[in-house]
Here is the input.
Amino acid sequence: MGDQLGEFLRAHRAALDPGESDVPSHGLRRVPGLRRDEVAQLAGISVNYYTRLEQGESHQMSDSVLHALGNALRLSVDERAHLVRLARPAQAEQIRRPYGPERVRTSVLTLVDSTADQAAIIVGRYFDLLGANRLGYALYGLNPGQYVNLAKMLFLDPAMLDLFPHWHEEAARTAAYLRMATGDMPDDPALSDLIGELSIKSPEFARLWAAQSVAECTHSTRHYRHPLVGPLELNEESLRFADDPGQRVIFLGATPGSDSAQRLRLLDSLVP
Here is the structure.
């Protein structure tokens, strides 16, 4: 976890624009972003202490230091939560979930399958598609019951560039969510294998992964360019399960009366 903490701090320090930070500018900069001493100054800690943090020596950072670093690095709410998980691995260990195959309760599958007028999919902790209703499978061009990993599909299947007109936004969102998952599931071999495979096979994923962005997926507006019905603008709501936060049900519905609502009904009529 120490290496992850150092990588996280270095990446976000490098992403800061010195011109937008409240530090005096002096001398030539050989690398992008702020220097270590500048971040330390902004956070009100010693350069030596901050250097040790970037070397992965968290020493159970206090709440005040975590807050100060979050402000200095201009972290988002999700990024601050990830920083806490990296800085306090003992707490992450206490909530660690067991590794291995995932199972979905029959009641959840029934709920999703009975959902009408909108697409519904069940996504696991490794972005596996664990279930969906008819519209959910049809939205991704899949047969009912077909198994896929949605992250691999997004980054490695060229057809996804056509399905998602805002592909780069989808890619950034997925990489940021996987980064957050590494804080929840440190040393999970399946998650490490997934990230390793994507890093090797997708240069874009490798670039996004190096940026150390972190984000939760809760709700958004997503755009599709479906080969059967054309453009769709769908409102996404993601619901997690209290007994397994790694799993979530994602509902994708169109605004009533919109063109997307008509196209979604058309798609429903076209699938078996």
